[in-house]
Amino acid sequence: MASITKELTFKSVPFIRIFEDGTVERTPLPYPSYVPPSPDQDPETGVSSKDITISENPKISVRAFLPNLPQNHTQKLPILVYFHGGAFCMESAFSFLNQRYLNLLVSEAKVIAVSVEYRLAPENPLPTAYEDCWAALQWVASHSSNKDLDSNKEPWLVRYGDFGRLYIGGDSAGGNITHNLAMKGGVESLCGGVKILGAFLSCPYFWGSKPIGSEPKGEEFEKYHHSIAWDFVYPSAPGGIDNPMVNPEGEGAPSLTGLGCSKVLVCVAGKDDLRDRGVQYYDLVKESGWKGELELFEVEGEDHCFHFWLMIESKTETENVKKVFKRLASFLV
What we know:
By secondary structure, the protein is α/β, with parallel strands linked by helices. Helix content is 29%, strand content 22%. It has helices spanning 96-109, 128-141, 155-160, 173-185, 218-222, 225-233, 275-288, 306-312, 319-331, and strands spanning 8-12, 16-19, 24-26, 48-56, 59-66, 77-83, 112-117, 161-171, 196-202, 263-269, 293-299. Strands 4-5-7-6-8-9-10-11 form an eight-stranded mixed β-sheet, sandwiched between helices. The protein has a three-stranded antiparallel β-sheet with strand order 1-2-3. Helix 1 (96-109) links the parallel strand 6 and strand 7 (112-117).
C-alpha cells in the first residue's frame, strides 16, 4: 500500500504544525499536558483542587483551587480568575506546569483561584479564548448573589469567596487576555454588580507593526514569530497585528482610562523579548490618566515566564522565583 504524505501548510517553530487535510500537530510539551486535580490536597502545598464544567455548549471548564484552611476558618478569601499562557494555541489549565504554578501561588497568597480551560486556536481562532474567559469570569461573579448552597453553585466560592476582592491575571497570552477582559469589564457589567478589584499581567503578549526599544528592525522584525503567531491565532483580526487587542495603541484603540479595575500590576523579565512591550503598556496606562493604582515589577536577568520553566527543573527556591510569588501574593490582598 502506497504511503500517504501529508502536505504541510503551516509551521510555527516550536509550537505547532497544520497540514492540508486540516490535521493539527502540537509539539509535545516537556512535561505532562494533563495531571489530575488534587481534591484531597496537594502533598507539597496542602492546596486542594477540582475540575468543574461550567458550560456544555460551548464546552468550557475550569480548575478551582482552595488553600489549606483550618476547620473553623470563617474569613473570606480573595478570588483570582487565572488565564494560562501558550500563544493562544498551546497549554492547558490542566497541565503539570499550571497545576504546580497555581498550587504554589494559592498557597503563598491564600486565595481561591479559578483557572480557565479556554478553547485553543487554530481549531477555535480568536476571539474565542476571550469569549470563553469572559464567560468563566461571569460564572464566578454569578456566585456573589447566592446565599444558599444549591446544586448549581460551587461551594468553595460561596463559602469562602470575597467578591469585593475579585482579581484577574495571567502570564504571556494570559496577560493579554487579562488586559482585554479588564477593558471589557470597564464597559460591561459582571453578574451581581461585581467589580474587578485588580489585574496582574505577567510577561504579557503585546505586539505591533513597528518595532520599539530593543526589538529587531527591518525584515527580521517583519518575520518575527510574534507577528506570525498573531496572524495565525486571529487571522480575521481587523487591523492585523495593530488590532487593539494585541497593540493597545493601535488605530482605533479605546482609551486605557476605561480599564475596569482599581489596580494593575505589570510584571516583566529583563531578558524577555516581550519586555519592552510590557514596559510600554505600563507607560501607556500611566499616561492615559487612568485613576487606579499602577505598578511595574521587573526581574532583571531573566527570560520570558522564567518562573514557569524553572518549575520544570524544581528550582522554585531560586531568589528570583521567590520574588515573583511574593510580589503576586502581596498584590492579591
